[in-house]
User: What shape does this take?
Amino acid sequence: MTDSLRLSVVPDIPEIGPGDDLPGLLAERVPDGPGILVVAQKVVSKAEGRVVRLADVVPGERAIQVAKAVEKDPRQVELILRESRRIVRQVPGVLITETHHGLICANSGVDLSNSPGEETAVLLPLDPDASAERIRARLGPRRGVIVTDTFGRPWREGFVDVAIGVAGLAPLRDFTGETDLEGRELQVTVMALADQLATAAGILMEKSAGRPAVWIEGIEPVGTGGLADLLRDPDRDLFR
Amino acid sequence: MTDSLRLSVVPDIPEIGPGDDLPGLLAERVPDGPGILVVAQKVVSKAEGRVVRLADVVPGERAIQVAKAVEKDPRQVELILRESRRIVRQVPGVLITETHHGLICANSGVDLSNSPGEETAVLLPLDPDASAERIRARLGPRRGVIVTDTFGRPWREGFVDVAIGVAGLAPLRDFTGETDLEGRELQVTVMALADQLATAAGILMEKSAGRPAVWIEGIEPVGTGGLADLLRDPDRDLFR
Assistant: This one.
């Protein structure tokens, strides 16, 4: 296990639009050597064309009803419902859903952007593990990729970034069977490594500054896996 | 805003026991310059004598009942209930409570240690902000301190470290009113900086290796605050 980590912003990433070769842009800018690249969902979604003009969205009846209850734009709610399996909680101002990926988060991860003259919504990638893998494939061996989004949490104030897509590393780190310094078996056994890395990178991803990617050195990516590893089985979840 | 962060394990921290001068031990080992020191709760609690021999705990009637329902040691449950305001969820194998500090977590943060011949429980610090402040006072200016514990989360697998005590920095970072590169106002406005730092440090705090403290350089601690800033007002929480 390493004694230090270095996180650095990947420099000079231009504004990303549909069809841009984001994996190539990132691969050119990431330093040599092993490490893990953390990329914010928004640029991934934009490169993949997951952007919708709100003016083109016709809300259905259910979206209109839910929009009234949660006091949101019915066109945004239409997109949120299309991106979701079910509503988890709804109150005025808040709509928490479970996405088709199994993520539980506000607004199915649909972000509104209010450019003058054109309101758009950015949706989550269709398959964030595949998005991560497309980037990883361009980085070469001994390098992992995590795609992140910024989520709120029950009970605690403030947002943190978490992993929504993973390629080239095991998202969980299992300490089961290891013992502590005094020979006692560890109680807390599985750490959410991909979320730890996502959250750490989020410290440098200042939201206003066009810094959508962070390179983490000092940790060798090990194993394989994807988002499914990070999602709790509903049968074992007490807060559905 | 900084472009890079460096996290490093604070070296050579000995096994900590009641009455040890943990703030002094840490201050001797932390490098010069500004930064934020992240310290795992367990060593803080041990130094503060928050350790109980299970053999000395007499479970009350309620603890015996709850212990049966959750299939845990009634003496441990007695401690969990003493450390809590209320039970949030209970099923076989899981007891989630709200602590007197307002933290919602498994087992009120009470950790069992099974040394041969002496079973002990380590409780959370009575006032984790005060614990952080005692350490911060020994580090001098431009240095912040975060005390962390390892929590599970709804909906997601794996544990992450979060802040339970803060001194010398504002736990939340508010981007309200800032605009992105295209001049749009940001939607996600408040990041949980203390939790981001706690979680990041957790990557290096391998649980089996006696590495209870991590020093983070590249970020200047700004502002003041404490755990209360990180706890959501119950009226605004949908998952109580």
Q: What stands out?
A: The mean pLDDT of chain B is 93. The first strand of chain B starts at residue 4 and ends at 9. Chain B has two domains: 6-50+125-231, 51-122. Chain B touches chain A through 74 residues (CB under 8 Å).
